[in-house]
Amino acid sequence: MAIQVLADALYSAHGIALLLGASGYLAFYAIDAIRSQPSASRGGSKVEGRTRLIVAVVLFVVALVTMTIAAPPPNDASCAEVDTSEEFRVPLAVQTATASKLETPSNPPPAPKFHGGSFSKGLGSRLSSALQEAREPVEANDGSMHASATPEKKLDLIVRAVAPISLESCKPKDTTEELLTMSELVSQLKCHGALVENSKSPRAHAAEVLSASRKLMVALRARASENAELWASAQVLWARITHDTLQSQCSAASDELRSLRRAKSAPAKAVIIALHKFKKLENPLKEALSSSRKGATSLEADASLRTGDIADEISDLRESQVAASTCMLEAIQEARTLAQALPRSNAHVRTALQCSGDMLAGLESLVVSSASQMQGVGTAFALGAYLSEQAVTEQSTVSFFGSRHSSTRWVSGGGDLHVPEDIAKAEDLLLRGEELTPGSLQGDRAAARALRLYQHAKHLALLHHDSAAEWRYREAARVAAAHRRPKLAAHSLTRLGFFLSLRGRKEEAQVAVNEALVHFDDPLAQYLSVSFARSTGELTTDAEVRAAEAVLGAVAGRLPSKILEEQRAQEHEEFLWWGRVADGGMRVCFAAQDAAQFLICMLCGFAFNLPLAAP
């Protein structure tokens, strides 16, 4: 509370003035109290000086708290300044080079061009209106596009192998939209779907396609009674377009969040703007989920429709759903990581929290709940990774996400050992996602699962759930070694050895460390191996001692903690000193650091017949 009050004062002109004045006032009375040296005849001077100093401090604290409490809450104008994220402004993070890969002389980038910090008004207004139309829900009873009895014309659609530059490629030639038949409208909608899927277009272009597809859906809804099969196909296509558009927007947001995270010193305002932009994906996600439910409902009502081309479209839709859900889970985790690192003392952060302190809580809940209902392999693994991160996080409350509600139940998990329910659920999802993953990607996911098991083991070890932690250390090493990740296997076994040594199980710890060194020369494993060998008296020859000394010198600066590094340095210095004794004779004993070392040196010298000085 005191830090927050001080931060509020530092970010206010009046607060700074008050602090400067109060500091001068306190300094004057402090100096005055010091200068008034009390004597026997002036016994009350010291008491009077202290009283004035205490009164000054109390008045300062009261004034500061009053100023903070009386500060007006942020109004609409200040909140609007926080959310200044236009849809097409240049990201404040480091730009990625993915968009430039699609640019060719014949295919210029569809993203707007910026000049002097702003883009073309004509293009900006067109894209803004397209976004506005993309946000408006489809009216169920819109009869503005009434079907008229007109002869069918063959629709000439141009679907190129690469992404079309604009929506004009999907429009029929020499035909107005009012004269199109239902099959022609569905073909145009299918072209829009190919446009979004193949182009990997930026958010602006994807929203423009979504707006045009929405208009087609309004026209098709008015003619739904003409052909049930075409209407069902249109609903599936529409659901796929919404998911592909969501994935395109999510990928752009995720790339920006990732760039900010990797920048490490990104401005707080840039992070807040990126979080606001990501929050705007909540409505597109709701629309995508709604369109999927409506399409599934219409197909369930008539089993005869789930054949032929519609069955293939449903399969494609499921792939789009999995891709969009996986992207949203990864983006949510990126956003959480960024929000967790935001300094609450920053003025922009405090204003944003006062305006919308939990703005991403609803989106996070929607993403997790929708992903839980997915059956896709990629979604299951991404959800497991996300739940794993949340299960081991130390902060229960994160800015803009609110409080995390973790389960307090304990259930049987890996190794038939009871663990918190969140950890058990995450591990089940990770295992299912790994086992169902085909091809070479399975090895990557197995390595990622091994890393999560290692993190679970560290978390459980801190909670003193030793058996559950030990099983996960061993399982992480087994999985990593089975998929050619020797460094991770060695690291996990090394941590297990260190953990067992802290529990007093030295023999088991030494076995784990030796097994780790079979996989990889982990620095901590090398240090622990020397330490265990020294404590058990296994260093019996001069060659073994000097080899141990060389290992301690080789791992300098590579141990994971300052305490371990200090212990290594001390042991290394002892090795070096006894080496000087062996080479220089008993005379070196007189340079001992303390009496105990001197006595040990002299007794060992007499016992092993060391010469007084080196020959």
Low-confidence stretches: 85-131, 133-165
Task: Give the strand line-up of the largest sheet.
Answer: 1-2
The largest sheet, given as strand count, sense and whether it forms a barrel, is: 2 strands, antiparallel
The helix content, as a percent range, equals 55-70%
> Distance between the terminal alpha carbons, to the nearest Å?
71 Å
Order of secondary-structure elements: HHHHEEHHHHHHHHHHEEEEHHHHHHHHH
Q: DSSP helix count?
A: 23
Strand share of the residues?
under 5%
| Cα gyration radius (Å) | 34 Å
**General shape:** flat
What's the rounded overall pLDDT mean?
Answer: 77
Number of strands: 6
Coarse structural class: mainly alpha
- Quaternary organisation of the protein chains: single chain
Q: What does this 3D model show about the protein?
A:
The protein has 615 residues and is mostly helical. Among the domains are: 2-70; 181-360, no CATH class. Helices cover 66% and strands 2% of the residues. It contains 23 helices and six strands. It has helices at 2-10, 13-35, 43-70, 76-82, 121-135, 182-199, 203-222, 228-263, 268-279, 282-301, 309-341, 347-356, 361-372, 377-392, 421-435, 441-462, 466-482, 486-502, 506-519, 523-535, 542-554, 562-584, 595-607; strands at 114-115, 118-119, 397-398, 402-403, 410-412, 418-420. The strands form three sheets. A two-stranded antiparallel sheet has the order 1-2. β3 (397-398) and β4 form a beta hairpin. α8 (228-263) packs antiparallel against α10 (282-301) and α11 packs antiparallel against α13. The radius of gyration is 34 Å and the shape is flat. The protein starts with a helix and ends in an 8-residue tail after the last helix. Residues 85-131 and 133-165 have low confidence and may be disordered.
